[in-house]
Amino acid sequence: MTLPPEALGIDIIRYKLLAFFVAGFFAGIAGAFWVSNTAALSPEHFPWFWSLWLVGVILIGGVGSIHGAIFGSIFMVLVMEGLQWTVIPLSAYYPKLFDGFCIHKGFGFRPCHLRIPDLRAQRSLLPLVADQELFQSLAVFLLEGR
Q1: Could you give the count of Cα atoms lying within 13 Å of 67 in the half-sphere of its Cβ?
Q2: What distance in Å separates the CA atoms of residue 30 and residue 130, rounded to the nearest whole number?
Q3: CA distances in angstroms from 139 to 31, 42, 114, 116, listed in the order given
């Protein structure tokens, strides 16, 4: 994108640096007015979330165009508002949802899912138990209900 101006003899690096310095100058002036408006300045005025939000806007919208930055900011605002409408009202149910999710995933890793395996038929587990007779009587008790 910088090839046509360079072909006309315009120093691109000079004008990019000039734009960067002018933007920094105006940001510094705006910051000075803002600090004079607030009585005290502390780290709570600069949450890390806003930096992360701006990086998200740039990543979604793209770096090379104004339209991309506008689209990225609109998208991020819609995502934030959508999360406020859906996630915050469900916060009272989080412990129940988390418990149900853990139980669901725990049963999913079992080899027979919800069916209790017949431990008498699986002799490969018995050498792992120290007292095999106690293990067998416990398995019979659990499987037959005695």
Answers
A1: 0
A2: 74
A3: 73, 64, 17, 11
pTM above threshold 0.90: no
* Tens digits of residue pLDDT in 45-94: 888 888 888 888 888 887 777 888 888 888 888 888 888 887 777 777 77
Residue indicated by tokens 């000079």: 14
Residues 6+ apart with CB under 8 A from 12: 2, 5, 6
State how far the Cα of 62 lies from the Cα of 29, in Å rounded to an integer.
Answer: 28
CB-count burial class (<10 Å; 0-12, 13-18, 19+) for 99:
exposed
Tell me how far apart the alpha carbons of residues 146 and 141 are, in angstroms, rounded to a whole number.
5
**What residues contact residue 53 under an 8 Å CB cut-off, 6+ apart?**
76, 80
